[in-house]
Design a protein that fits this description.
Chitinase A, domain 3, seven-stranded antiparallel β-sheet, 7 strands
């Protein structure tokens, strides 16, 4: 199971260009619309959602307790946009990433806490829980982020 088996039609993401990037309420509404369309065409996965609006499909919940904000995790991940563009991958560069959970974007904090060690899933994160108005590493601002994540290690 990996993200982006199917991509969101271009007309869905065009809706974001029609609104002010600073209108967070309208942006969240359009994000939900785009995410629902995206997950609707992912035929090999079943998605649940969190109260904050993250949609996720857990392939393996992992073992043990999930990380806390103070935990340091080591993960493999691949980041996509909803149009299928692969942005970065620790798997492709052969170097897992380690970081403190409490120091990453809100969408990651929440997503990581849904799995234990060896946990693996796909997470569709609305722009407001991602980088929002910031353009980071060439990502367009207000990007919806699609992550395939596997937790390799949790240290408290």
């Amino acid at each position: 199971m990996t993200a982006c088996g199917e991509t969101t039609p271009q007309d869905a993401t065009d809706k974001k260009e029609e609104i002010s990037p600073f209108d967070s309420e309208k942006m969240a509404q359009v994000d939900r619309e785009i995410i629902r369309e995206y997950i609707g065409i992912q035929t090999d996965m079943t998605f649940d959602s969190t109260a904050s609006g993250i949609f996720y499909s857990i392939e393996n919940p992992g073992i043990g307790d999930p990380p806390t904000d103070n935990s340091t995790v080591t993960v493999d991940y691949t980041l996509y946009l909803v149009d299928g563009t692969q942005v970065e991958s620790t798997i492709a560069n052969g170097k897992p990433s380690s970081f403190e959970v409490g120091k990453v974007i809100e969408g990651w904090k929440e997503s990581l806490k849904l799995m234990g060690v060896t946990g693996k899933g796909t997470f569709v994160i609305p722009s407001g829980l991602g980088y929002g108005l910031r353009s980071v590493n060439g990502l367009p601002r207000n990007s919806i982020l699609v992550f395939d994540i596997e937790i390799l290690k949790i240290e408290d």
